[in-house]
Amino acid sequence: MRKFFAVLGALTISAGALSAHAADMDKLNDRLSGSAQVIREIMATPDKGIPRSILSGASCVVVIPSYKKAAFVVGGQYGQGVATCRTPRGWSAPVFVKLSGGSFGFQIGGQSTDLVLVAMNQRGLQDMLKNKFKIGGDAAASAGPVGRNAQAGTDWKLNAEFLTYSRSKGLFAGIDLDGTVLDDNNDDMRAQYGADLPFAQVLSGKVPTPPNAVEFVHTVAKFFVVSQGNQ
Fold first, then answer.
1. How many CB atoms within 10 Å of residue 209?
2. CA-to-CA distance for 170 and 97, rounded, in angstroms?
3. Which partner from 1, 17, 65, 192 sits 20 to 30 angstroms from 80, CA to CA?
4. Which pTM was predicted?
5. What CA–CA distance (Å, rounded) separates 58 from 12?
6. How far is Cα of residue 75 from the mean position of the Cα atoms in its chain?
């Protein structure tokens, strides 16, 4: 009888663990799908989307769907998302990230915003591989230009490692994210890959893209294309 209850207890624990893992995967699937949808909706209107020169020159893309911001004079911000980087063999399998930070200024109310961060050079890529770094501090950032024919200033070409964008209530524009912190999401990485895989290993293209992430990676690859003139 004692052995029976021991087996029953083990089965119950196992079933609970499987249920928790399934719930975690549902959240990751929603985040991946939501991130792909953000990219599609932004690029559905080229005249108001990310300029072609930026699409072709991007090293990495980070998408934070439904970034939460709530404030009364002093506010807080938090969001979870996914990132992929360009490799010689195409775009990498995704890593899971979180973005957090404080806001300032006179604010009342709350909103949910989709964010896109674009790493524009090799240094931006290397910063993404660090464990936890501050945008505007560890990595220079600039609000990105918008529109098919947008002529961005030379400052971001020379200095900005990241171009930052936001989309709220149908409006898409560059945004200042200085002071926010981009960090890896180890819990989500374990849920997706079954282990704490190093960001560098995943983003360098050494890890196959999981089936549930194919839509997101393919969506990024569809729009962030290197033009003939940039090859």
1. 18
2. 24
3. 17
4. 0.78
5. 48
6. 22
Residue 28 main-chain phi, psi, to 5 deg? -65, -40
The three-class DSSP label of residue 156 is: helix
**pLDDT of 106 above 60:** no
Which has the closest alpha carbon to 86: 128, 29, 40? 128
Beta bridge partners of 103: 75
CA distance 129 to 123: 10
Q: Which of 208, 227, 209 is nearest to 219 (CA)?
A: 209
Q: What is the pLDDT of residues 24-61, one digit of tens each?
A: 789 999 999 999 999 998 888 767 788 888 899 899 99
22 Cβ contact list (under 8 Å, min separation 6): none
Angle made by CA atoms 218, 31, 217, in degrees to the nearest 5 = 10
| C-alpha to C-alpha distances, 58 to 29, 53, 175, 188, nearest whole angstrom | 24, 9, 17, 25
Least Cα distance to 113 among 65, 59, 145 occurs for: 65
CA atoms of 28 and 173, how far apart (whole Å): 26
